[in-house]
Amino acid sequence: MLNKVTFFSNIIFMILNNACFIIQWVIIYSLKNNVGGYSFKQILLLWGIAAGTFGVAHFFFKEAFDLSDTINTGKLDAYLIQPKNVLISSITSSVEVSCIGDMIYGWIMLFLYGFSIKNALLFLFFSITGGLIIASLAVIFGSLSFWFGRVEIVANTINNLMTTFATYPEGIFKGFVKVLFYTLLPIGFVNYIPINLLKEFSLLQFGIVVFITILFIALAFFLFYKGLKRYSSSNLMNARV
Amino acid sequence: MAVITVDNLSKNFKVKIKEKGFKGSLKSIVKPNYKIIKAVKDISFSIEKGEMVAFIGPNGAGKSTSIKMMTGILYPDSGDINILGLNPKKDRKKLAYEIGCVFGQKEQLWTHLTPYDNFKFFGAIYDLPDSQVEKKIKEFIELFELEEFINTPVRNLSLGQRIRCEIVASLIHEPKILFLDEPTIGLDPVVKENIRVLIKRMNKEYKTTVVLTSHDVSDIEKLCKRVIIVNKGQIVLDDSMENLKYHYLNKKIVEAKMKEPVNLEDEEGITILKDKGYNLKMEVDTKKKSIADAIKLLNPDNIIDINISNIPLEQIISSIYKDGEKE
Questions:
Q1: In chain A, which residues touch B (CB < 8 A)?
Q2: A-chain residues within 8 Å CB-CB of B125?
Q3: pLDDT tens digit sequence for B54-112
Q4: In terms of CA atoms, which chain A residue is nearest residue B95?
Q5: Is the Cβ pair B73, A231 closer than 8 Å?
Q6: What DSSP element (H or E) covers B120?
Q7: A214: closest CA of chain B, how far (Å)
Q8: Distance CA B60, CA B306 (A)
Q9: Count of CB atoms within 10 A of residue A123's CB?
């Protein structure tokens, strides 16, 4: 980050960018009181959680979303000669400043939804579990590069789909898409269950979210380390910037 | 005591073969063709503590692959590696505390941080206490003459300054073995010389074992007492620098400036390299013909000036590379 101006403008413009999308929902809710089973306040919360989890994932684990490139260009070498966990050091090696804006936006949405200590704690908790799931998913698809080389397109598509679908109420999706949301595109565990839980707490559902988060993290580590044995490095010239 | 032992190490790479043109691209999607490239074939050697070993070979010989396997970056297909009693395959993290690596072609430093911050960062990675890192940095600033740019972001440093910092960063945790992969690539002669002096000093002061790859023969000549030459994934020569020179230096280059032109033909033990009448350059194989005999051929009274020199090491090494190609 070169200076303060770019730092703050990045954050503020990300907040404004997110806020623009709410306008369409204001219009929709002026015509209808209920979309897909969500009230307007729940839509705000949906956006809050979507922005919060996205912010956590892309701020702390920015490089998870470029893992495919890191693998293909041999940039893992630098982490492999250090006495620390390769996966964690490589995916946390830089941060996306604009994501601070996403995280702040998430909290603004929570305040608009209704602030209470319980809601705040749950929101914080689900921002972290959701962020971890999103980052793990990126690692899982990025790790495929160990086997199939350039899989950026697949990985990027999955990552983008996660963001695109995350901002629509669950009720408007049916059948196969809904199955996807609880498997390949785990938006259900990132957004929908947490939203239900903020409305009405259930220990079982809470447990499911925790379990799934651990499962995704474990799968990410498993695949990455399985693939690492096939890592072939490269002699491309590159610099850390 | 051997600090590095490598036994029957092999590594293959699977490479997709694509035929020419668009048709070839389509074909490679439907029915891909693979070729196995044997990057490293069954190599074995061992290195003692405090040794400085040159690990050299032509491009694509398998040097970097071997070094990457020794440092735990790549998994070997077969064979055993033992570095300071550790197996890089299983104890990568433990090994990382003990070794340092500098890859001339790859930056490890963070370009937006100053060298000072970088060193602090690396200190933290290696779990060193702050006071120790401070002490080390102070020591290195003096030893490597970093005072001038210790607080300048790495992206603003010249290549020579950067490489110096790269080396320091890899030394911050006092590694027992240092792997240097072309540390002097792209540097000017003065900086190269500085780096060599530093490596030598470090080897002397800290008894650090050094494994060095380089295409610059003077790096090797000035630093290493032992040379391992790899070609096509195999070790073609593992010998001391002295032996290497001794065995290959039975050929001398004789350059003479004459009063009168001489006309010499190639004969046993003598190869004329250049004959411009008054100036003559020939290669003498001292096993077949002594230097004295060669000079007699020139008629000593006629010589204005004479220079007898060894064949440059560079030429020796490239002839070893070429012999490897023929096999």
A1: 74, 76-78, 80-84, 228-233, 235, 237-241
A2: 82-84
A3: 988 888 888 888 999 999 999 999 999 999 999 998 899 999 999 999 887 777 888 88
A4: A83
A5: yes
A6: helix B115-125
A7: 24
A8: 40
A9: 22
